[in-house]
Amino acid sequence: MGLLKKDLCDTTDLSDSALQMILARAQEVERQPLSRVLTGRKIALMFLEPSTRTRISFQMAAEALGAQVVIVDPQTSSVQKGETLLDTVKTLEAEGVHYLVVRCSTAFLPHLLARETRMHVINGGDGQHAHPTQALADVLALARRVAPTQDIGPPSVISRILHDIRILFTGDVRHSRVFRSSADLFRRCGAQIGIATYPTLSCEFCFSFEGTQKFHTLESGLSWADVVYPLRVQKERLADLPFASTEEYYCAFGVKSLRKHQWLMHCGPFNRGVEVSSALVYSEQSLIGDQVRCGYLTRVALLAEMEAES
Ligand code: CP
């Protein structure tokens, strides 16, 4: 019996053993030549919302493993003629596609599609709900920075690496699928979670992770944190902004400086001079490039493990 489910729609689809297995495999990707385990398999990328990192890393991962990649462009697909997404998915299935990566603005759409198809469905980010592969990338990126030479292979190692690391999320926690998924995996790996933002940019659910700390100012949160993780203010999901201008936001919650040995994470896309200062983005204390690299490594590992268990 395998460790993975047919689909990856949420971090809850990953058991601790499955998480450990994917992270260990991702670490191996840079250590040995890839075997083209997806030769003869087809992967469809159906991105109904903009994406750079997730779409490109899935495409590169699939191609590196030997798969044929099919891009479903919503602007030129028959969805424009009134075909439903479910019928598009059924069409892809009939075309012989094995894996479907979906990015969409509707929460739980990947779950609904997964129930209706034999294809393996992977959630590439659904509305405000979940972004499980970003969470895998984030955990690996942080683990590699905390313990660069540590082998993740043996069971429970990831929890020892991240144990009691304090991660402060700032900004638009309320509307963030990345917060929901990454905070879940960080917490399961033993890290502590804190939130510093405007009350209207968080919600009760955000504090449902056991032990989540609340900070009313950025400064109090920063003095607690080992890692600060600003989240983009998602104007596309907000009717009213809780601040008058981006200058006001930057003044109150923009991350402008870090303590020595404090790290910056951001899933991207980031807005320089809004949630984070331009100078910090690619500074030595930033893990942003590592997160992107780990996005590729963990997606290779996920696809390879899914194929191994299919
Ligand atoms: N982090 C992330 O999901 O980035 P993209 O929207 O560019 O894929």
Structural summary, described in words:
By secondary structure, the protein is α/β, with parallel strands linked by helices. It is 38% helix and 15% strand. It has helices spanning 16-29, 53-64, 85-94, 109-116, 132-146, 157-162, 177-188, 218-224, 246-253, 278-281, 288-309; strands at residues 42-47, 68-72, 99-104, 120-126, 166-171, 192-196, 213-215, 227-231, 263-264. A five-stranded parallel beta sheet has the order 7-6-5-8-9. The longest helix has 22 residues, at 288-309. Bound molecules: phosphoric acid mono(formamide)ester.
The helix-and-strand class reads alpha/beta
Number of helices: 11
Identify the strand order in the major beta sheet. 7-6-5-8-9
Give the H and E element order: HEHEHEHEHHEHEEHEHEHH
Distance from first to last alpha carbon = 10 Å
Shape: globular
Give average pLDDT, whole number.
Answer: 94
Give the uncertain stretches in residue-range form. Answer: none
Structure summary, number of beta strands = 9
Bound molecules: phosphoric acid mono(formamide)ester
Quaternary class = single chain
Largest sheet: 5 strands, parallel
Instruction: Kindly provide the radius of gyration, computed on alpha-carbon positions and rounded to a whole number of angstroms.
Output: 19 Å
Helix fraction, binned, reads 25-40%
Beta-strand content bin? 5-15%
